[in-house]
Write a structure and sequence with these properties.
The protein is α/β, with parallel strands linked by helices. A 7-stranded mixed sheet has the order 2-16-15-4-14-13-6, sandwiched between helices. A 4-stranded antiparallel sheet has the order 7-8-12-11. Helix 23 packs across helix 25 and helix 27 packs across helix 30.
């Protein structure tokens, strides 16, 4: 790499849309402010990411730099490379991600205060790990085992009944209704004992339920239940049936089913309890009912815990993860205490045990991951608090001077790594609970910049990179923030980024203008180093030096351009004079001053209108010699040209060949090409087909609409994207074809 004194040298290739540097390396002056200025899509963010990758040897950063061609073809020759020499000891990188990583959430400690939440790369990795466990928890909840377990729990709850607040079964519970009048089976006639003796467990309830169901008319020869032919015995059988309570039998069968269907997976105490109740010839005693009620409560708690976990997962997961954990932990404890099921059966894990264990393990991993996150977050916040400790008064003064109605408060104990930073609204009349509604993006941006500045100041011998740092600010706040960050006149902060090695990447010319005019001395020179960046058709990043006077008010640039046009074809001068008059006339309807008349009359030349169209457009019955003379005299004053307006109208009404000839002249700037294409389209709109969006670029060449107060010299700095120039070439090629066809006709 090229070694330059008091500079960092950046070399790169195949980084996203940047294939290479037109002039290598890209130089960053040390102990100075370096401005990278260019339109969106130029590659400023790519440059910043390349610096980050080169300094930190960031593998993930290299992936972000991969061009599309490399990803599609996996061509090793297109692998991104970025090197910086010498390598800075530290890198502080500010971008939109940094803003998102330093945000305020509603405080649970102080009313109307927002507590700072801070993340970094390591914490984001831990968040991904925690979120992966959350995904695993979702899968565990949606597993077949869990679906079957919930079905079992619901079946138990339905067959046993529900308990009330006192922990006892309700009167409508099947276990209560089944044994309301004792055992549904008793008293059992002696002659039925041999029949029942052969039945086991729940079969008795099923047998009794079958007996009480209708089986046709009363038989006279044989009993369908016991098989006797004795008429007296048959009569006794039917009398036994009619003496049974159908509802009690139905409820008894439910209780029996709770055991019969799930005895293979119920824990031994639960299965034994149910079996003892079912086979007994008496109603369950108080102890058995109490034990069964405890079993039902555990069923209910387990089902509720599972539902609560599902509901908790519907809530936001990142910043609000602490709330998620507070809801998940009690649920995990409830599931862990579930003693309803066998853990294994014949050496295999039972379905409910596998389902519950999967959910519990996933929650435990989430809790552990969140604990690590909380620990590192506290440490990170302590570092932030340490960096701004002693500057709180300065920060609050800055917020006040920039019109932000908030102040910073710090509660911290650095020794114990405990720190809390609060943002408090000043004079809030009502409770403010949502920081995203209370803080605009510009306010979040300003606070983040100030926090970043104090962090960067603490990093010795480092490179500080700010990728598009100023956004969503009004003019006053923009200048105030930049002044506080960079000015050598430290009226706001005792320390700022002055004399630090800083790279600011921006697409905003007003930011550039402010930075160029704020007094920011370097160690060896007294000027800020600025570069205007553009990307050419070959994917090369081109750079051109920005001086303190590179940005100028638009009127000054127009006068400068009018001077240039004195020795050029007049059409270029007419466009610039017209723009100048557009700025100086009183308003768009004014027709008294020479600026207004010159704008109106030169518009006819630019739009290609002939004499009749011009007269009609202006509503003239005669030539208005006085107004025409005002226009001719102003053109002479500005350009030195002595013109006859009506001769110029005649010439430029039919001048397509002349415009094409000008377009083919060598050393024509991109802005000149756009201007000429604009004039061609006014004479033949069909040349542009339906490309109305790009046509707007050409329109800007003849109007001041959309221009900033300050601009770069368009002849010195090529600001037209190469694809727009390609479009211009296509329009002119079509114009040549059209003229050739018309000539043949």
């Amino acid at each position: 790499m090229v070694k330059l004194k008091n500079c960092y040298s950046l070399e790169l290739q195949n980084c996203r849309n940047i294939r290479s540097l037109e002039s290598s390396p890209l130089v960053i002056a040390r102990n100075s402010l370096n401005i990278f200025f260019g339109s969106n899509g130029t590659g400023k963010t790519t440059l910043c990411k390349a610096l980050e990758h080169a300094v930190l040897d960031d593998v993930e950063g290299a992936t972000d730099l991969e061009p599309f061609a490399f990803r599609e073809a996996n061509n090793f020759a297109l692998k991104p490379e970025a090197k910086v020499f010498p390598k800075p000891k530290n890198l502080c990188f500010f971008n939109d991600e940094w803003i998102q990583d330093h945000c305020f959430v509603s405080s649970s400690i102080h009313e109307n205060a927002f507590e700072l939440y801070v993340r970094n790369k390591e914490i984001r990795k831990q968040e991904k790990k925690r979120d992966a466990y959350i995904v695993a928890l979702r899968h565990a909840l949606d597993s077949d085992e869990m679906m079957k377990t919930e079905k079992i729990l619901s079946s138990l709850q339905s067959n046993l009944g529900k308990t009330n607040k006192d922990g006892a079964f309700t009167a409508a519970a099947p276990i209560i209704k089944a044994y309301k009048n004792g055992s549904p089976l008793e008293p059992l006639p002696q002659f039925l004992h041999p029949v029942v003796k052969g039945l086991v467990d729940a079969d008795k309830a099923l047998w009794l339920k079958w007996r009480t169901e209708p089986h046709g008319s009363t038989p006279t020869d044989i009993c369908p239940y016991c098989g006797t032919r004795d008429p007296e015995r048959i009569k006794d059988c039917f009398e036994y049936d009619t003496s049974r309570s159908n509802d009690a039998i139905k409820q008894w069968e439910k209780v029996a089913s709770a055991y019969h269907e799930h005895r293979e997976i119920l824990s031994r105490p639960c299965a034994h309890l149910l079996r003892e109740i079912i086979i007994s010839n008496k109603a369950p005693d108080a102890l058995q009912l109490e034990q069964l009620a405890s079993m039902e409560i555990k069923v209910k708690e387990t089902l509720e815990a599972i539902n609560m976990i599902r509901e908790a997962l519907q809530k936001p997961q990142n910043i609000e993860a602490a709330e998620l954990i507070s809801e998940l932990e009690p649920c995990a404890i409830t599931l862990s205490s579930c003693n309803l099921f066998l853990k294994t059966k014949k050496g295999s894990t039972t379905i409910p045990e596998k389902a519950l264990k999967g959910v519990i393990n996933a929650i435990n991993k989430i809790v552990a991951a969140q604990a690590d996150l909380n620990k590192d977050s506290k440490k990170l916040i302590a570092q932030v608090a340490s960096s701004i400790e002693g500057h709180v008064e300065e920060i609050n003064r800055f917020l006040t001077q920039c019109g932000y109605n908030y102040e910073i408060k710090i509660e911290c104990n650095i020794q114990s790594s405990e720190a809390q930073i609060f943002l408090v609204p000043i004079g809030a009349s009502k409770s403010v609970t949502n920081p995203k509604e209370a803080l605009s993006y510009g306010e979040q941006n300003a606070l983040s910049l100030i926090l970043f500045m104090h962090e960067a100041i603490k990093a010795p011998d480092g490179l500080i990179v700010l990728d598009d740092p100023i956004s969503s600010f009004d003019y006053d706040k923009r200048y105030g923030v930049l002044y506080a960050l960079f000015s050598s006149h430290r009226t706001v902060f005792s320390e700022n980024l002055n004399r630090k090695t800083v790279v600011v990447a921006t697409h905003d010319p007003l930011v550039v203008r402010d930075l160029l005019t704020i007094k920011i001395p370097g160690r060896r020179n007294r000027s800020t180093k600025g570069l205007f960046l553009s990307i050419n058709k070959k994917g090369q990043l081109c750079s051109k030096e920005l001086r303190n006077d590179s940005m100028a008010p638009y009127t000054q640039l127009l006068r400068k351009e009018i001077e240039r046009c004195k020795d050029r074809p007049r059409i270029f001068g007419y466009v610039r004079v017209r723009q100048y008059c557009e700025l100086l006339r009183k308003n768009s309807l004014e027709r008294r001053t020479r600026y207004a008349w010159t704008f109106a009359l030169l518009s006819s030349i630019i739009h290609g209108k002939d004499r009749d169209a011009t007269m009609k457009d202006l509503g003239w019955a005669d030539e208005h010699k006085r107004d025409v003379e005002m226009c001719e005299n102003l053109v002479k004053d500005l350009t030195g040209w002595k013109i006859d307006f009506w001769d110029e109208v005649k010439f430029y009404a039919d001048c397509m060949g002349h415009l094409i000839g000008l377009y083919d002249e060598p050393d024509l700037s991109s802005h000149d090409k756009l201007l000429l294409v604009r004039l061609m389209l006014k004479r033949d709109a069909s040349l542009a087909d339906s490309t109305n969006i790009i046509k707007r670029f050409a329109d800007e060449e003849c109007h001041i609409g959309g221009s900033y107060l300050y601009q770069l010299d368009e002849q010195e700095f090529d600001q037209v994207p190469f694809y727009v120039v390609d479009w211009c070439d296509a329009v002119v090629a079509k114009a040549k074809t059209t003229i050739g066809a018309n000539h043949q006709d």
